[in-house]
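Q: Structure tokens for this one, please.
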Amino acid sequence: MRYLLTFFFCSNFPLLALDKVTSSKSIFVHYMPWYASKSFSGQWGWHWTMGHFKPDNLGTEGKRELASHYTPLIGAYDSQ
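A: Here is the predicted structure, written as tokens:
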């Protein structure tokens, strides 16, 4: 339910500007509620490993070995 409320709030209410200038930029949020990270949940969830990737290993570019074509800007997050 909290995910639905988060989506509803983000999609239906404009952001409050700190100054009096009105912003016309839209902000879109995409949230995956089923990811688990070792630092928060104690183990890597299946969606980060897909059974054979090892997120504890760092690749040649210093990025975690994730079951993803792209690394989130905040890193391998936990959905909790």
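A few notes: Residues 34-80 form one domain. The chain has three helices and no strands.
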